[in-house]
Amino acid sequence: MFCVSVAVIISCSGVPSGNASNMRISSWMVYWDMDRGQQEYHKIGGKIQSISYFAAYFDERNQLFIPQELMTAQKNIKKEKTGTSYLTIVNDKKTGHGKNSLKDLDVLRGVFKDEYSLEHHVHDIIELAEKNNYNGIEIDYEQVWKDPELQKKFLHFLEILYTQSSQKGLKLRVDLEPATPFADPYPLGPQYVVMMYNLYGTHSGPGPKANEPFIVRVSQGMALLPGHTSAAFATGGCVWEDGNNGRLISEQDAVSLAEEQRAKPERDTASQCLHFEYMKEGHQYVVWYADRQTLNAWIHLMAVYGHTDVSIWRLGGNLQIERLNERGGGT
């Protein structure tokens, strides 16, 4: 359970805090929530060392493209920032039927099918980043660990991408799911970002996106990764109807819902998340979500265990985002 004080944070095992004030912070901005994302960036931009623009993905012909909303926002922010701007590449595919195929492994099997295809894919990624004035690349290819052969090709791809992107002066980040086998032979060079969320979510019943035991377990596994790592935490939360059918919501949405239903959120000590319940039209709804106190507790916990870099998913729909990584309790 978290033990938070105004001056310091001490884990319940008695381990003293690291220096969270030295924590490097990165964040994502997503193409479907650009207006709110940009508004929050203007509030917190001075605290952010890098920003990842989410995301380029594949069209019907398996060609990478950047959504127009992302291109516009990146140009606007680029004028006023000096940190690293990463172009995030995801293995989603535009189907042409109004819905994207998410975390598509077939599209990766296509681009990794042989050495020529893999090299061509690396070239396309670097060209897309350079053409659109990014100085970093972020790879977010998920669920590759379900296919052992694809897993080997993915690690080979990272090695080639790092070598060639470095020659172009581009930084490289790689996003990893919390259940990823961290002991695999990852190439040294990229920064590896581990998603410390979705402990509970749309795939499960009600609960927090992360709690202390989950964060500690995953952070200990991260020690197997080479080089400098980052822990990614998620803002917002989820609302479940009758114990399932979860859907993601922002902090702003959760606060508005609590006010509308006259519910009083309570803070969970194991996760520092807020939660509340209400009944509507014969259905029970349960809401769990993070606020700035939650995020600050998670950030300070990472400092306790010696980590110096966190990434925040994501800008948009947050309250008091400008108070991120500040000491002290209260909401």
TrEMBL record:
Tell me which stretches of the chain form a coiled coil: none
Q: Which domain of life is it from?
A: Bacteria
Check the record and name the PANTHER family matching this protein: CHITINASE DOMAIN-CONTAINING PROTEIN 1, CHITINASE DOMAIN-CONTAINING PROTEIN 1 FAMILY MEMBER
What protein name applies here?
GH18 domain-containing protein
Q: What is the lineage of its organism?
A: Bacteria, Bacillati, Bacillota, Negativicutes, Veillonellales
